[in-house]
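Here is a complete protein record:
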Amino acid sequence: MGWMYTINDTIVALATAPGEGAIGVIRLSGSEAIAIAEKIFKGKKLSKLPSHTLHLGKIVAGETTIDEVVVSLFKGPKSYTGENVVEISCHGSPYILQQIIDLCLKQGARMAKPGEFTLRAFLKGKMDLTQAEAVADLIASQSGASHQAAMHNLRGGFSQELRSMREELIKFSALIELELDFSQEDVEFADRTQLYDLISRIREATRRLVDSFRLGNVIKNGVSVAIIGKPNAGKSTLLNALLNEERAIVSDIAGTTRDTIEEVLNINGVLFRLIDTAGIREHSSDAIERIGVQRSKEAMSNADVVVYLFDLKESLVADIIDQAEELKKTGTTYILVGNKSDALGIGNAKEKFAALDNNILFISAKNKENTQQLKEALYELAMQGKVKPEGTIVTNARHYGALQDVLRSLEDIKKGMDENLPGDLVALDIRNALHYLGDITGEVTTEDKLDYIFSKFCIGK
């Protein structure tokens, strides 16, 4: 991105989604944002007006009126980026939007790069790096849980935890450094017992954050669920029952589904990607069907959860026991689901499969019986008994990696104290931990890292 050389430019971009809409918003940010807007805005003189105000007028190119607009005025540093910001709300015609952006470019603005508005907010100290990344997560959130996690981080919840850890470590690091200055006098400023307690508390808090990443991944990316089973077990019917829509082609002919079909289901604010696969059967003369079966096995190996669906009436108990053992061997998280309970009856089904010790969920996909219980079972497996997150949940792989480095540094500090290592070596380990904590919030970072992080943002944010 090379932001060191361009951060003083005034940038412009479409802030709303591209395409036709009722309203589109064009955002300008930089020292010349107000001056540039004034040159194309026919109405009140914007530079004379107070910040945080709205103004009706027209965007003009010479004598030609492009559109009637509302201009929002935000004078720095009290703005999103910390700079002068002007937002032009116009009609959402792609032609109009492009005309206004072109006018801004002609007056000296340049097109913003991905994430550049939020990068400027970070560089101006309006937010730290975890909050900046939460902006992207918030935009990308597709469920209640992912929205809640992003909002928690955007408000600074994660940052506050890290800041508290860092401040306490800095205090002890300073005391140990002071000891080194007075090494000839053999004095001890840093209470080792207190340091032990501090390291223990921070290790526990860091480990909790590291462990939360599994749940964070579920919240951010959803859970992939492969619905597998023999041909005509009712996989497509189950998919339709869970979605309450006719998404998959359903017929009585075995092997109708030749490929994988993926749909998204929201259960209690968590997204589940349901993959309806071709029926698993070992021998088939149909080349296309064999490809479908192979893809099913691939989907099964990549899935977070496998729903093994079988026909209660037609299936042999021994076969289901063998299938359960096979899934256990691969370490797969799975649910056994017996379908077509309407044909066999729940009582008969429970009696027939008693050997499986009630580890089967009995449903009728056709009649939508017990499908709600299946949704609840999927949710419990994904969340592992945890309720919706209230505290900090790590959803970012970069944060997860840095926290693992923090944890290793804390282990080194403890080991150093256990072995009575010299204070300069303990201080070095503390500095390492501080570095990794600062790396998460952006207090310690590089231009290359910022380029990588903000390049993943959408343009206009």
Q: What stands out?
A: The first strand starts at residue 11 and ends at 14.
